[in-house]
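I'd like us to work through together how a protein chain folds, taking it slowly. To get us started, please write out a protein record for me. Go ahead whenever you are ready, and we will take it from there:
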Amino acid sequence: MSGNVKGIDHGSLMDRVYRRQRHVYDATRKYYLLGRDQMIAGLHVPPGGSVLEIGCGTGRNLIKTMNQFPSAKLYGIDISREMLDTAQKAAARAGISDRLQLAYADAACFDPEALFGRKDFDRIFISYAVSMIPQWQAVMREAVGHLAPGGELHIVDFGDQKRLPRWFRAALYQWLEWFHVTPRNDLFEVAGKIAAETGSKAQARVLYRGFAWISKIVRQ
């Protein structure tokens, strides 16, 4: 386990937010956390490849990943112990507890060797979490640093909503603020900068008229 003081404070906030919500999270979020399954399908995990989810939440995405890429080795970290407890139980129900390793960690600074006994991953993904992480750019840089050669970082999150009605965007942003969610309208720009800094390649995909974005960084 790892975490700095700010990370621990954020973890306490996430525990308070999700202590009750975690029980209905998957049932309610499916209506607006769009693009998650498209992102998972686009992981194209190599046979026997390793996959880490940052901010694994309820474990829903990792279970979907296992269903799609059954030979994958799965790992997940989260700063909310409440969510990790839910993910452990979901993995047990899905019968994949022995194929999934979960750990409490601050995504902005973590040691995968200490947590999981490995130094890098073929795929890392972040699903609707950069909009909730204050130091999200540091998390992206940390993630790229833990990619194996040829590895990929995939991020799906809220887009800028520019091609949707203004009233919809205003209402959505107000609603998201209540849940400590801030869409990162410069996500593609930041991904491009990180890719340039690390000799990687950035790709961008816009879904549902800008409601959701998928950002991808491929390490060369």
User: Anything to note?
Assistant: Residues 5-218 form a domain with the Rossmann fold fold (CATH 3.40.50.150). The beta strands are 50-54, 73-78, 100-104, 121-127, 147-158, 201-207, 212-218.
